Amino acid sequence: MEMTLGKRIKECRLKKGMTQEALAEVLFTKKSTISEYENDKIDLKYSVLREIAKALDTSVSYLSGEQDEDIEDEVMQMAIALQQIKSKELRRAAIAQVKVLAGL
């Protein structure tokens, strides 16, 4: 079964432990609108998709199916690890090493 935009929104909402009502409140819209998003009955503008991604702590690229969730999780883990490095110099060195590994 294909993961549509609506199904990804619902999946992320449930992972976050949010109800449709709670998401609607964050987005200043109605629960019925969230239901229509999740059932792929409304074509979303990019600006709305950005707000949904922000509310669900995910990315537009994941919601739209352009990025694998595993990759996104790994990137988030890397970002969290980098944030925990107190020294700016060490953090920059770690970033430089990652760039070398990535071939950048």
Protein traits:
104 residues, mainly alpha, 434 Repressor (Amino-terminal Domain), 2 domains, 7 helices, elongated
Residues in helix, % = 55-70%
- What is the terminal-to-terminal distance? 36 Å
**What is the total tally of β strands?**
0
Content of β-strand: under 5%
The DSSP helix count reads: 7
Q: How can the largest sheet be summarized?
A: none
Morphology call: elongated
CATH topology of the largest domain, by name, is 434 Repressor (Amino-terminal Domain)
Q: What is the top-level CATH class of the largest domain? A: Mainly Alpha
SSE class? mainly alpha
Low-confidence stretches: none
Mean pLDDT: 90
Q: From the alpha carbons, calculate the radius of gyration and give it in angstroms.
A: 17 Å
Number of domains: 2
Assigned CATH superfamily of the largest domain: lambda repressor-like DNA-binding domains
Q: In CATH terms, what is the architecture of the largest domain? A: Orthogonal Bundle
Taken in chain order, the helices and strands follow as: HHHHHHH
Brief digest:
By secondary structure, the protein is an all-alpha fold. It has helices spanning 5-15, 20-26, 31-38, 46-55, 60-63, 69-83, 88-102. The protein folds into 2 domains: 5-63, 434 Repressor (Amino-terminal Domain), CATH 1.10.260; 69-102, no CATH class.
Description of the structure:
This protein has 2 domains: 5-63, lambda repressor-like DNA-binding domains (434 Repressor (Amino-terminal Domain), Orthogonal Bundle); 69-102, no CATH class. The chain has 104 residues and is mostly helical. The radius of gyration is 17 Å and the shape is elongated. The protein is built from 7 helices and no strands. Helix 2 crosses helix 3.
